[in-house]
Amino acid sequence: MKGMPRRFLIVTVCLVATVSFLVGLIVAGSTMPAPAQSAPPVATSTVRAKAAATTGPMIGSFADIAERLNPAVVNIDATTREGSRPRRRIDMLLPDSPDGFGRPSDRDRDGPRRGAGTGFIIDEDGYILTNHHVIETADRINVRLADGRTLRAERVGSDPDTDIALIKVNSPRPLPHAVLGDSDTLRVGEWVLAIGNPLAYEHTVTVGVVSFIGRKLFDSSLDRYIQTDAAINFGNSGGPLINSRGEVIGINAAISSRASNIGFAVPINQASAILPQLRDKGRVSRGYIGVALRDVDADLRQSLGLNVNAGAMVQDVTAGSPGARAGLRPYDVIVAVDGKPVQRNDELIHTISARQPGTMATLQVVRDGRPINVAVKLAERPLRERQIPRDEPRPSSRPGPALGLWVREIDPSFAQRFNLPKDLEGVIVSRVDPLSPAFDAEIERGHVLLEINRQPVRSIEDYRRLTSRARPGEVLALYLYKPEITRRELHIVKVE
Predict the structure, then answer these.
(1) Do 106 and 175 fall into the same domain?
(2) What is the pTM of this model?
């Protein structure tokens, strides 16, 4: 009996040691060094801190966001009288429109047609943002609120170029409204939420991520669409695209006809910038100089021997435009506006568009390697025109060189059919080889080739002479006139 306490003590000590050993293993395992990373932990923390500073605090869940924003989202019913058809901007992308919602009673083309869309209230007085194409041809606009009330809306203003419209309803009491965010801080991969009335299913909520920022769809000079995979369908147009903090950062505007998970939204900063003009004037006035532009890149510098690293090169100057009156010429490179540097043509267009017509601007231009200043008085930017389908010219039997182009002379019937400028001299692209350098440069049949590396091409012989000397790896700048858009453009071709 006297040995029992000693044996008990030994067993107890062994058990305590074993347990301590196991606990030590567990703790050690949890504190093992992390696997090697592509960036040090300090850098990761810095990035996260920067992102948090940019994006701010997030709401707990998308359910909270939907609950808070849903009351500000409205259903828009636009009724159009007989014979009023909306102007589609492009067929490959399908925005909503009054003739895009086939309710059985609305398909009678001899009577009124009704279309549906979405909008969202931006202040308690009843101002509502939506898409221009939702109410473009509407003769009567009714808005159904989340509380079930239906109110008649008046058109305040709209802007076809950015597909933004402002309407207003009158309510005896303040209305719930959405908070507008800052779309310039948006990042690819960020979670977003869309609310709308797709296919008449009101207040449908979908979630996805930002897939791309700055997508060009209709007008390369103004478009900066947010691309998202959050489900958007007919009826979503005009509805809000919302970030994870419950702020509206886009206006849902279009979907791709080729996929079910590619949607596009107008950045809310574009809407915020023009809201004062829509409220005061009902439309938007933008500055305009009347030139077609392209970025200066390495290939362009090599082919033309430019001595500038960035800027916007003038490709074409519209006759009678402010740019023409100021003396701008093709191949001029605009590097600054009133002393503010211009890196890309988008920057120049946004800078000029943000100014009022009638104001003056001084362009810093590099012409044939020499810097000059050009003073220009801005006009009002015209609304974009619809593109017309292009009739393909007949092919030529003359073979093409390594560029992959076949060309032929301009004939009177082609010049008349496409209303070519009378003084236009060049050759018609009659065929483009698939997978050729010209094909890669997006040159198409029907384009008129005017110059190669600033050397005029007035005949097939000129074309052969200028291209026969091209060697593999050489870069050529082809100056083309495009009848379908009535504009001249530079295309860079790399010889194979």
Answers:
(1) yes
(2) 0.67
